[in-house]
Specification:
By secondary structure, this protein is of the alpha+beta class. The chain has helices at about 1-25, 30-50, 55-70, 95-105, 155-165, and strands spanning about 25-30, 75, 80-90, 120-125, 130-140, 145, 150-155. The termini are far apart.
Length: about 170
Amino acid sequence: MRKRSISIEGHHLKNRLLLIKMENNFKKVHIGKDLAISSIIFIAGVGLYFINKGAGVCLAACGLLMLLLYKKGYKKDGQDIVFTRRADTICKYCRSSIIDFLNGKTTTPAIKKGHDGGCVYLEVYYNQGEKIAYAQLFDFCNYSYKPVTEIVELRGDKVDTLISIL
């Protein structure tokens, strides 16, 4: 009987992890700045190779690794817009104000940064040129972050308001 309860708990945990994974629909992508920096470092390494072979190979390898690993932009599934990610921990007393802002009940959230009495985690993916953002709020509970809200889409002036506060 004990084995059965463990497998049920494991199944429940597996479903919960899948749920959290589905909420994050953003994948990392290269932006022009990433490609420019890694290309410059690689070209500098190739040029340095003719002066000092060891340093040139090292610098060129760093440029290649940066090209493979350094991705600063984010794309949402099914969209071609590149987003920037911004996240911050905020005082837990501001939780209801942030939820009201995300639901459209208030125009400006009251945000106090810090950890007085616990904290919530606000994650925002935004593109200021397109005036679009996606935000999600998490509670810190039992040494992990649990989502409080779904991913909320914001448009227009609400995007500028949220980004200026963070």
